Amino acid sequence: MRAFTSAAIETARASASRRVVAHAFPASSSRSLATATNAPDGATPKRRFAKLEDGLTFDDFVSGEPLPEAPERVVLGNTSQPRLPSFLKHPIPTGKSYTAIKKDLRDLKLSTVCEEAKCPNIGECWGGDKGTATATIMLMGDQCTRGCRFCSVKTSRAPPPLDVHEPENTAEAISRWGLGYIVLTSVDRDDMVDGGAAHIASTISKIKQKSPKILVEALTPDFANKGFEPITTVATSGLDVFAHNIETVERCTPFVRDRRATFRHSLEVLRFAKETATANGKEILTKSSIMLGVGEQEDEIHHALQCLREANVDVVTFGQYMRPTKKHMKVDRYVEPAEYVKWKEVAEGMGFLYVASGPLVRSSYKAGEFFIENVLKKRRAAAAERATAELAAVDATKAEETRA
User: Fold this and answer.
1) Quick check: 352 and 313 in contact, CB under 8 A?
2) Which of 283, 289, 196 is nearest to 234 (CA)?
3) Whose CA is closest to 167, among 241, 231, 240, 110?
4) Which of 87, 93, 283, 351 is the most exposed place for a label (fewest CB within 10 A)?
């Protein structure tokens, strides 16, 4: 091994010393921090360098004295917003059923609100066994003419024309899944004369033709400035549940929904849907949904529930607002599960037929759908029994008259 001479060692030390000094600013150096930041004499240095003075220096580490305790731990990321609680976290969706449903939707060129709205329950709903797995199909494309601050569906002033094959393709997809209950929703189409009501009604009609026993829920737009005829078109099309969401309390509505969507008009849509269906000999349930965590107050939730009951709404759901992207409105708070239990009890005490309330509950919620399915089937079975009894009574009366 080649030996180093004392002269070579001294030269190396000197070189290392020069390298260190070239990148350091000694405390005795006449070059002040203000000069290093291009600040004039006596001026406060830029904050990015002043921050360095608040922490430990190189001398603190080499002095041999104990280091001072840190005042608090370092927290990375944005700490101004509430953190996502563990009860709102869901696993990544997987499984054969999930894959099969996704393939059917792609093959038939159908959109779902599950994907467009980034629903956290997509794995649970799409991953069930055949006959229980379900997807909420979104009609009229994936571009909405509204721009609600909570919704991640794409917005466009002039969406493309409707797909004339969509009603048939939707009915075909649903018939493959062998479901007992299906939810349809849609984007708003303010660019159309009827807001797309005829398209929705046609889809419901074709679904009933292919699957007569299936129950259909339609989560509809508000058809603002279209009159009441579009509501009648949908409410009397053969659907079983007419759903329209108020989304939030009256005070928060202008800040949460598109300005064209008003709290009072949504109530009127729900009220008229029940009335026009009854007038046309159709039995339907009406349903609405409220998001919590957008800045609402307790008394305002009570008021919203009272308004829904006055509009003769049968079903209400409560769920947590979850910010889909950083471009959307912020979450005001994450509501604890115990509060959802409270609102369920309050709503049931006010006379709602069914209430689904929980952090991950959405307007199209599978557990709620099973309950509504059973209610409708029991009601219709009872109605059929009454009709049979009435017919038997009429026949008996005629027989008595004939004998007399």
Assistant:
1) yes
2) 196
3) 110
4) 351
Residues 6 or more apart whose Cβ sits within 8 Å of residue 365: 121, 317, 319, 356
Sole residue written with tokens 């509809």: 220
| Opening angle at CA 329, ends 270 and 140, nearest 5 | 50
Q: Which residues pair with 242 in a beta bridge?
A: 218, 286
Contact criterion met (CB below 8 Å) for 45 and 34: yes
Q: What DSSP assignment string belongs to 109-134? A: T-EEHHHHTT-TTHHHHHTSPTTT--
Q: What is the pLDDT of residues 138-153, one digit of tens each?
A: 899 889 999 999 888 8
Q: Two tokens at 397?
A: 């009366």
For residue 274, give both structure tokens. Answer: 């029940």
Residue 114 is assigned to a ligand binding site: yes
User: Is position 307 annotated in a ligand binding site?
Assistant: no
252 known member of a binding site: no
The tokens for 97 are 């059923």
Short-list 302, 298, 320, 321, CA closest to 310: 302
pLDDT digits (tens, 9 = 90+) for 372-396: 777 777 777 777 788 788 888 887 8
Give percent above pLDDT 90 in the chain: 45
Q: Please identify which residue in the block is written with the tokens 């509009």.
A: 311
For the chain, the C-alpha Rg in angstroms (whole number) is: 32
